Request: fold
Amino acid sequence: MRRFPYVVLDVFTNQPMQGNPLAVFSEARGLSDAEMQSIAKETNLSETTFILPRDAAAERERGVRVRIFTPTEELPFAGHPTLGTATYLRSAAQLPSNQVDLELNIGKIPVTFEERGKDAPFGEMCQSDPEFGQTHELNAVAQMAGLEPADLRDDVPIQTVSTGVAFAIVPVKTLRAMHSLTNVFSWQTALRYLNRTDAKFAYFICTETDEPGPGGPQANIHARMFFYNGEDPATGSAAGCAAAWMARYKVAKSGERLLIEQGVEMKRRSQLYVRADVANDKIVNVRVGGQAVIIARGEFELP
Reply:
């Protein structure tokens, strides 16, 4: 039997059993594409990553090669797998490195770290510069989401943004409407709409936020994201798109770091820190940060 070790991390949190869980396979050489996809389906987490070690010179130049799979497909980029995998690599090296570079299917993504005392280190990834796509008609998006048109903001556009994966950023007026998505959102209905657009998913955001609980920081943005595997507790790729969108439409100032809370309705509270810069009327330097904690270790046995 071939044995493949893995760890499970909770990402975008410093508390076990919160945030978004991620499986990281630390030595994936010898696994075929089909086997990686089957393992990701077996873990049934929103994403599973596979590290493909190579010689030190190549890793210094291009980064550590990592592939990201959902239970049904490979992704070119995703946020919580990037942060979680980089956090694991930094921990496994037992060195307080300030930066871990990953080579994903979209290219090299750096993750920088800062120490937080006894708490889990804080990592921040710099995502690709955003591409702004189509704007969406408000009534059509409300119907797609199961909401009323009055539930959506009309002072800023609903627009597709991509820093590697395309999300329609949907600004919602109230926390009440955000909570109601639990009962009214249908992935099949949403998919029929999304398949006619340039967006792969929709990311719902609201400036009304929940109370954080004892000792927790107050968030600036409440967010939710649904996909074919259910609801996602934390979506780093979408958070980067939201940061770019907020900077473009002056929901956030250039370089201002905001805290997005996600996964609250799932009882998997996640904390995603985002910021983006405005330079010469362009949005650049999109950054998404947070913490991650290792909660399990094991190995898969395959013929």
